[in-house]
Design a protein that fits this description.
- This protein has a 5-stranded antiparallel sheet, with helices on one face. Strands 1-2 form a two-stranded antiparallel sheet.
- By secondary structure, it is α+β, with helices and mostly antiparallel strands.
- The protein has one domain.
- The radius of gyration is 18 Å and the shape is elongated.
- The chain has 2 helices and 7 strands.
């Protein structure tokens, strides 16, 4: 879920082997809504506050180097950027969390130009699950995106 809505492209269900007396259908797949952790929600809300629009989400097989990832897959949440980041094609966001902190991974995809190819820039940082409130995440993300974009002449 993001901003109270289900993520397009992400369907999660649970299949159980639980026998319940007089159950209607023991073989159906029941949907489960997965909400972000409060620290994840703070980052997602910052993207929305900056004007990013949700594009899609998917699961990727593999590992994100340098993170606390233990599972053989991760989720990518893709956003369309607002006009102020006109050189960006999209931004992909991934969270890798454990019980204490999370790694926030951003991948910025540059739009290809008339005489240039598109390119990607990665950034990751650690956020404590219990001490994330002291940061203005919209300002932090805007500053970082602006620095990277101006350094690379994207905007």
């Amino acid at each position: 879920m993001i901003d109270g809505q289900a993520l397009r492209g992400m369907n999660i269900g649970v299949s159980t082997e639980l026998a319940i007396a007089r159950a209607v259908d023991s073989s159906d797949l029941d949907p489960v809504n997965v909400h972000p952790l409060p620290a994840q929600k703070a980052i997602l809300d910052a993207f929305i506050q900056l004007g990013f629009r949700f594009k899609s989400a998917d699961m990727e097989r593999g590992h994100i180097r340098g993170t606390r990832q233990k599972l053989p897959f991760y989720q990518e949440i893709e956003f369309f950027p607002p006009q102020q980041y006109r050189g960006l094609h999209q931004v992909e966001l991934s969270f890798v969390a454990d019980d204490q902190a999370m790694d926030v991974i951003l991948e910025m995809d540059k739009k290809p130009g008339l005489f240039s190819e598109g390119s990607d820039t990665f950034r990751s940082f650690k956020v404590g699950l219990h001490d994330y409130q002291g940061t203005d995440w919209a300002a932090y993300l805007n500053q970082w995106l602006s620095e990277v974009g101006s350094r690379r002449n994207w905007f």
